[in-house]
């Protein structure tokens, strides 16, 4: 969980701000895009553009769930997992069925180890984020 520990987390925690910072660090902006996606499978998608990473996430769910989805995708990005969809496969139809097909494909492509890494990353960041808002923030650093 080195990657989760190394991150400079915004305080109070804000996943959008975190993505801004990571994007600035990497020199590749991370663009967050809420979309109506399937509720059946994974609810997030990472698209690797030429100069930016696009993270799509389910718009019809709670803010907490969205935060987790975004962190999971950020985990894939920071671990540089192979298998991000590329923009040329997707445009000009960034909606509906296309996204559903991409979703089904993407997280399969990553494989179990990568999925577990992304999940562990999301939980580790959330654990740090919740600690950092409480009494014990000074212990954390
Ligand atoms: Zn995943």
Poorly predicted ranges: 133-141
Q: Specify the biggest β-sheet.
A: 4 strands, mixed
User: Structural class of the helices, strands and pairings?
Assistant: alpha/beta
Number of domains: 1
Backbone CA Rg: 15 Å
Q: What would the principal axes of the Cα set say about the shape? A: globular
- End-to-end span in angstroms? 15 Å
How large a portion of the residues is in β-strands, by DSSP E? 5-15%
Mean pLDDT: 79
Q: Helical stretch count?
A: 6
Bound molecules: zinc ion
Strand order of the largest sheet: 1-3-2-4
Helix/strand order, N-terminal first: HHEEEHEHHH
Helix content: 55-70%
Total strands: 4
Can you summarize this structure?
By secondary structure, the protein is of the alpha/beta class. It has six helices and four strands.
Explain what this protein looks like in three dimensions.
The protein has one domain. Helix content is 55%, strand content 13%. The chain has a four-stranded mixed sheet. α3 crosses α5. The longest helix is centred in the last third of the chain and has 37 residues. The C terminus is likely disordered. Bound molecules: zinc ion. The site of zinc ion has 7 residues, from α3 and α5.
């Amino acid at each position: 969980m080195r990657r989760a520990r190394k991150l400079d987390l915004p305080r109070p925690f804000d996943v959008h701000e975190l993505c801004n910072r990571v994007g600035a660090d990497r020199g590749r902006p991370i663009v967050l895009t809420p979309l109506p996606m399937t509720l059946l499978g994974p609810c997030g998608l990472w698209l690797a553009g030429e100069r930016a990473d696009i993270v799509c996430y389910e718009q019809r769910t709670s803010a907490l769930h969205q935060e987790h989805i975004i962190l999971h995708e950020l985990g894939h990005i920071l671990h540089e997992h192979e298998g991000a969809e590329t923009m040329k496969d997707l445009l000009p139809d960034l909606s509906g069925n296309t996204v559903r097909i991409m979703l089904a494909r993407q997280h399969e492509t990553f494989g179990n180890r990568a999925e577990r890494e992304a999940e562990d990353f999301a939980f580790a960041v959330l654990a740090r984020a919740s600690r950092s808002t409480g009494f014990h923030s000074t212990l954390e650093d």
